[in-house]
Amino acid sequence: MQLSKSNNIADLRAVAKRRLPEPVFHYLDGGADDELTLDRNTSAYDDYELLPTQLSDVSRLATGTRLFGQALDWPVILSPTGASRLFHADGEPAVVRQAAEFGTLYSLSTLGTTTIEAAAAAADCPKMFQLYMFRDRGMTENFIERCKASGYVALCLTVDTPVAGNRERDFVYGFAQGPNSPTPRSRIRQIASFLKHPGWLYRAVLGNDLEMVNITSNGAYEADVNRSIRDFIDNELERSLTWKDVDWLASRWGGPLVVKGVQTVDDCRKAADAGATAVMISNHGGRQLESSPAPVDCIPAVADALGDRLEIICDGGIRRGNHIVKALALGANVCSIGRGYLYGLAAGGEAGVRHALKLLRAEFERTLALAGCNDVGKLGRRYVQHRVRKSGSSFARFSDK
Question: CA–CA separation, 23 vs 193, rounded Å?
């Protein structure tokens, strides 16, 4: 199946699976432990039904919204994802250009393979920088100053990674290191898979595409440049992070600040009290705490309690346009997608990202029209209901593990 024959995100995932070495695909696709949270992130949307209002004039649809004071053409932003060049040579710049083409915001990860400055120059669209808090505050301050100089409109602090999640697929397919390193059999399988993808292997071995350049280009790192990035991150991530650190970051940045990885009303309230202007309700794509709730299930309580104080971003499991409509109807301001566009990137580079966003936007607009809503600003609870799960009922799964 090629891009032109990919009718949905699941089809793009299938193409990505064929085009990537096994260890790389499963690093992209996998989650923690038994992957219950990973699966639930998407299947949770099945628990909500849309309630259409018929005989509504949907000849024109108003899909525009605002986030961080920035105008967006539709309520979907692109999540921060590490090492985009791991999945295709086009990398982060290709995704930035498509964010601009589709009138939305791009988020760059601290662990990206494109610098803050290069991503800013790639295309004219609003940009957010996702950061981890390091023990060396000089590194964080360096990121802040570079983002200010490059015109980023928001910062996003990830708070759900005090330790790495238990991603067992990485052990099985050979993307792990340490005590759970691959067995000899899986190493042979890993080597065979890489040899079937010589183009990827050439870039990884001879190119410089996979360097975490935002760390290596940071002045605070230069004195320690002989250590590996992995070791540096493991040693330098701040694990004693508290809400006082969010307050410090808010005061240093002085602009829109998102706390990513919160799921409870209490944590969202603490985020607002600490100076955050938005929360990204997220469980890190099911890659951290197993058995944490699906983000879409957390939205109503947070919106009811704090919708007047915080902008709410729903991040996780979105694979269909109707998922976007459901999340917005439940109280999210915008939705954020990560794997949705990465499958496209892996399947076909920049053209694949374009195809992924085109599919999702078409599905989103079709769902709006069929639901009888001609303006995203009118979406609310009257358009959605929670379906009671009956004993013995079966629910379709998106993944095909």
Answer: 8
> Given CA atoms 23, 28, 33, 39 in this order, what sign does their dihedral have?
negative
Quick one: which of 66, 105, 191 has its CA closest to 95? 105
Each as own residue / partner, the long-range contacts of residues 297-305 (CB below 8 Å, 24 or more positions apart, any chain) are 297/44, 297/47, 298/263, 298/264, 299/327, 299/330, 299/331, 299/332, 300/330, 300/331, 300/381, 301/265, 302/265, 302/268, 302/331, 303/330, 303/331, 303/332, 304/331, 305/265, 305/268, 305/269
Is this structure's pTM higher than 0.90?
yes
Residues 165, 171, 175, 178: is their CA dihedral positive or negative? Answer: positive
Residues known to be catalytic: 284
188-217 pLDDT, tens digit each: 567 778 778 887 777 776 666 778 888 888
Q: Is 228 helix (H, G, I), strand (E, B) or coil?
A: coil
Amino acid at position 31, single letter: G
* The total number of structural domains that make up the chain: 1
Mean pLDDT, rounded, of the chain: 90
327: domain CATH number is 3.20.20.70
395 belongs to a structural domain: no
Residue 394 forms part of a structural domain:
no
pLDDT digits (tens, 9 = 90+) for 236-286: 787 889 999 999 999 999 999 999 999 999 999 999 999 999 999 999 999
Nearest 5°: CA angle at 179, between 175 and 183? 60
Query: Which helix (H) or strand (E) is 127 found in, with range?
Result: strand 127-131
Tell whether the model's pLDDT for residue 32 goes beyond 70: yes
Closest CA to 346 of 242, 209, 200, 141: 200
Q: Which residues form the domain of 85? A: 3-384
Asked whether 316 and 294 are in contact (CB, 8 A), the reply is yes
pLDDT for res 192: 76
pLDDT of 400 reads: 40
